[in-house]
Amino acid sequence: MRKVRRRIQVTEEWITRYARSIGAPMQTIGGELIAPATMPVIFWQEFDIPWLKEEDAWIHGSQRFSYEAPMTAGMNLDCELSLTKAETKEGRQGKLTLYTHNLVCYNGNDLIVTAETVLIQAGERHENTNHG
Amino acid sequence: MKIRITAEAVQQYAFASKDMAAIHLDSDAAAEAGYERPIVHGMFLMGLAQSLYISEHQTAWITSCAMRFHSPLFVDSAATFDFGATYNGDDIRVTVMAESGETIASGRLTVREGTCR
Questions:
Q1: What ipTM was reported for this prediction?
Q2: Partner B contacted by A38 (CB < 8 A)
């Protein structure tokens, strides 16, 4: 399995900028700003992900987020992104390769969120993305 | 709820998310990938879905959400977001449709009411 780890600081400014971009109202809990539920997907940009090449064209197949606690401003999250599955299927327009990823983020010892992302690439599986 | 998703909105999302993939922003790149126009980020649609729901339920905390992306939505076109109860009543069903009636994306939100301010 391929994995990358990164500590991610969730700031009020970052939450606000992302929330504005999707038209999300600001919410608080215990006086702290809550990140929109879909925000962890932009954590991907903070990782250097060796098995994804920038020049490759990906389509987002599906996305799931599951929270144990609200993600709030001021958290320092320890996040791990892993490629858990790569499978090739026959689609209407030829071969498709589906890459399933899991993102898990902890605040200290507390699990905050898990996310599953399936990216789809047309064509055969790339040698670089095979995993054991 | 019907929303027109403009190129400006997609560009703003691209900057905020740092997802600057050309297929969302550039007509030539979209054409090269086989699309007649640039396509909206799937995650922008999912983000809009949660925002629209929260706008109407401001004390709700989304404890989980999921979406499957079926077809591309072209930039500068309208999308209809439909919310409804699921059969078991615990989740909120979400469907995003193009003007043609084609389903672009579908999924669910699970919420806990009265949690946020």
A1: 0.94
A2: yes
Per residue of chain A (132 residues), give pLDDT as tens.
Answer: 699 999 999 999 999 999 999 999 999 999 999 999 999 999 999 998 988 876 667 889 999 999 999 999 999 999 999 999 999 988 777 888 999 999 999 999 999 999 999 999 876 555 444 333
3-class state of residue B70 by DSSP: coil
Please answer yes or no on whether A22 and B51 come within 8 Å at the CB atom. yes
**Structure tokens that stand for B55 in this block:** 């706008």
User: Is B54 near chain A, with CB under 8 Å?
Assistant: yes
Residue in B19, B54, B61 closest to A70 by CB: B61
Cα torsion through A128, B14, A9, B60, rounded to 10: -110
